[in-house]
Design brief:
It contains one helix and no strands. The protein is mostly helical. It has one domain.
Length: 57
């Protein structure tokens, strides 16, 4: 294999690794955002339940 072919192969591997890293980071940000939204929805549900209980007294 020529030196240029080895250099090109190395660059391709680095690009693939970088894109995989970016993809994993994006997935982690999405999981974090989903978790944040789930907590907000749960907090609103608790708030509505407490309000309904208070109003029924």
């Amino acid at each position: 294999m020529s030196l240029q072919a080895l250099i090109d192969l190395s660059r391709v591997r680095d690009l693939n690794r970088d894109s995989n890293d970016r993809l994993e980071q994006a997935r982690q940000r999405q999981r974090d955002y989903d978790h944040k939204i789930e907590k907000q929805v749960a907090n609103k549900a608790v708030g509505h339940a407490l309000l309904a209980k208070t109003c029924s007294l």
